[in-house]
Design a protein that fits this description.
- Strand 1 (14-20) and strand 2 form a beta hairpin.
- Helices cover 37% and strands 15% of the residues.
- It has helices spanning 53-66, 77-83, 85-98, 133-156, 162-165, 171-180; strands spanning 14-20, 29-35, 69-75, 106-110, 122-125.
- By secondary structure, the chain is an alpha/beta fold.
- Helix 1 (53-66) packs across helix 4 and helix 2 crosses helix 3 (85-98).
- It is built from six helices and five strands.
- The protein has a single domain (14-180), classed as 2-Layer Sandwich (Nucleotidyltransferase, domain 5).
Length: 196
């Protein structure tokens, strides 16, 4: 049994929101918004960072199937460089909420900051992906959709090992940037090399 909470407010249609890829050196930031049935539970569902890739891949179709509504929002590396990663994270969440087939009455946001979305009230919850089922579900969709994007980019730029590091600043990723230079998918406003 999951020990995550099913909702903050039983009477409202709540959408959990989370993003993936904030700390990456390449690729987009991807956010998801998920409205789950109030009664939904799944023993595996947890913060995506606590799950293996296999577990996340197993949960993704389950979440997409049972959710009353779900959507993914993407802000690419160029926009990130233009507006900075914090604003890009908020924008990705806004884009996800924009696409929900059902209109939520409240947003549960993973983290401590958010830019208010239209007239929908929100609550920021630090480490929310380990506290609420809908945020955990959003964290899994954001992560799996972003990983899928990076795996496709890896086929084009295999020397950066994005199939393994997903664009995060690993030693191998930084070494590949030092050796091969940057790709058109790198975020130029980020510290790409250790000695920058």
């Amino acid at each position: 049994m999951s020990n995550l909470l099913p909702y903050l407010n039983k009477k409202r249609i709540e959408a959990g929101c989370d993003e993936a890829g904030r700390g990456c050196l390449a690729g987009p930031v991807v956010a998801a918004a998920v409205i789950l049935p109030k009664t939904f539970t799944h023993e595996l569902l947890n913060d995506s960072k606590k799950l293996t890739e296999k577990q996340r891949e197993k949960l993704r179709p389950i979440i997409e199937e049972v959710a009353l509504a779900w959507a993914v929002g993407i802000v690419d590396h160029k926009e990130i460089d233009d507006i900075n990663i914090l604003n890009a994270s908020f924008l990705a969440m806004h884009r996800a909420v924009d696409q929900l087939k059902r209109k939520p009455q409240h947003l549960l946001i993973d983290g401590n900051r958010f830019k208010a979305y239209k007239e929908i009230p929100h609550t920021c919850i630090v480490k929310g992906d380990g506290k609420y089922l809908s945020i955990a579900a959003a964290s899994i969709l954001a992560k799996t959709h972003r990983d899928e994007w990076m795996n496709k980019a890896h086929a084009e730029y295999p020397q950066y090992a994005w199939d393994r590091n997903k664009g995060y600043p690993t030693k191998a990723h930084r070494a590949a940037i030092a050796e091969h230079g940057v790709t058109p998918l790198h975020r130029m406003t980020f510290r790409l090399l250790d000695d920058q």
